[in-house]
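Feature request, filed as a ticket because there's no other form

It would be nice if the structure record came with a short human-readable summary line next to the tokens. Right now we just get the raw output. Example of a typical job, pasted below so the devs can see what we mean:
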Amino acid sequence: MTEYFLPTGYGTAEHVEKKSRFIGQVWPVRTEAEAREKIEAVKKQYHDARHNCWCYLLRDGTLRYSDDGEPQGTAGQPMLEVFTREGITDAVCVVTRYFGGILLGTGGLARAYTKGAKDALSAAGISVERLWDRLLVACSYSLFERIRQETEKSFGVIEDTDFGADVTLTVLIPEMETENYVNQLVELSSGTVQGEKLDQMFRGVPVKSEE
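Raw output as currently delivered:
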């Protein structure tokens, strides 16, 4: 099953380390040109900052980063590692530093830039882009919680919930999990709940936050 993890949207976060102000920003991007545009826009926005360090990575394997004047290996690469550890792609990150007059040392710089990227990614959220089956699931109120848990176990997402005489859920299930998910619904409901497939799509869906 082909799947990609990427930022859900734009995210930003700030923190201060020994009077230096760090501003992290993250965007989802599709192309190298788009990533470069974001970087240049930040450089213009924070033209008076000492450093605008950046990284980006795309699903075609493209990886780029810059320490922008910081000691080699203390900024761009640690930022990039935040994304590679999480399996994130199609993302660009810029961490801006306003120097506060106190040197942080190489270890301190690496930790500060890592935090800048990590906090910005957390603010952006993470989506998974894969092939999903959309199913309609109708159940009694007494079964609702068990079905919600089964959906989560199957790596699914509840897209919509209608509370009427019964509960009607619209759920997104990874295509390779659908058959097992439907079988589990039948088993836990003694055959009273069926999953009706509505359609299928390849799209990104928010599934978790970076912590």
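Something like this underneath would help us a lot:
Strands lie at 3-7, 11-17, 20-28, 51-57, 63-66, 91-98, 126-139, 157-163, 167-174, 195-208.
Helices lie at 32-45, 76-86, 105-124, 141-153, 178-188.
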